[in-house]
Amino acid sequence: MAENKPISPPIEQLLVRSSPGGLLANIRARRLGLPLPFQAGAPLRADVGWPWRMDWGGHDPASPVAEMHINYHNTGWAMMIFVCTTVFYLMAKR
Predict the structure, then answer these.
(1) Rounded-to-integer distance, Cα 75 and Cα 83, Å
(2) What region, left, alpha or beta, does residue 33 occupy, with left being phi > 0 and alpha being psi -120 to 50 degrees?
(3) Distance CA 29, CA 42 (A)
(4) Positions of the chain with pLDDT under 70
(5) Residue 43 backbone dihedrals phi, psi, to 5 degrees
(6) Per residue in 18-28, pLDDT tens?
(7) Residue 43's closest CA among 24, 28, 65?
(8) Angle CA(24)–CA(29)–CA(32) in degrees, nearest 5?
(9) Kindly report the CA angle at 43 between 16 and 62, in degrees rounded to 5?
(10) Angstrom distance (rounded) from CA 63 to CA 69
């Protein structure tokens, strides 16, 4: 039977990760090219800023679902601008 390790609460994990020993362990692992022992969870690492996101979407999404909604919104706006510009141009020239 496999041993079940107790899961530490998130506050305890945060304290261990931000303690001087945890910070030094992360620095040592980064210098040696090893995986970080006290790295953040996957949802926190998913948030990366992109310059084009600041122009169109307003902010950087923290989840794939939020990114999907922002991309849908941006595509809709681009299509509406194209359609409105084309219609106004044709109305003015005819």
Answers:
(1) 12
(2) left
(3) 18
(4) 1-10, 14, 38-60
(5) -60, -30
(6) 778 877 887 88
(7) 65
(8) 125
(9) 125
(10) 10
